[in-house]
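User: Predict the structure for this protein chain, please.
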Amino acid sequence: MMTEYSYKYYDPLEQMMPARHQYISQMIKKNENLDLNEYLNNKTILDLGCGTGSFLSNYKDIAKLCTGVDTLDFFFKEQSSRLKLIKNNLESFLIKNKKRYDVIFLFEVIEHLDQRVKINLFKLIKKSLNKNGYIFFSTLNNNQISKFLSINIAENIFKLLPKNTHDSKLFISPNEIQKLCLKNSLKIIDISGLIYNPIIKTFSISKLSLVNYIGAIKN
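Assistant: Here is the predicted structure, written as structure tokens:
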């Protein structure tokens, strides 16, 4: 576990933020026929594995309440009445949580969890999500290409990420996500790929989901 801030770990996550926002906006427009700002007005957001809190803070002036939870306290953003950042284990937080949220973010978290925690996390998220609420997530696919590119290339050769950031045994396929959703009466409404351009250091949404992918789930 990291004990101090690592730009090599957090920079790629920051580079994902525009693509995340674009994807969420597209899904809300497609499924609710609303602009994201309109949809989030008076809504509550929970960001599990919020990192520095930077992505969540983009919505603090739009949503009613933004709550971020992470096991590490590397929060860069100043808290306010509408932005709460909490250091806690995700399972522990959800077990004690009595609130329900309209939107839950689960970005770059699932691929770090063992199967027991994955199963329990989806069960707990279901209890914390309002009816017709959304889960937006991104993770790494479970196949040989994904393992080679995300570990051998990204970590070991180009050193885009700290070594041992990922354990390929924890990677998860869209079919495995689907099984977790079905067990908890959740519905996947979209799976799309995320493609990284190392030259301009940006992610873009793609139809190819062999490595990184992003998805939307509805309660």
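Residues 7-218 form a domain with the Rossmann fold fold (CATH 3.40.50.150).
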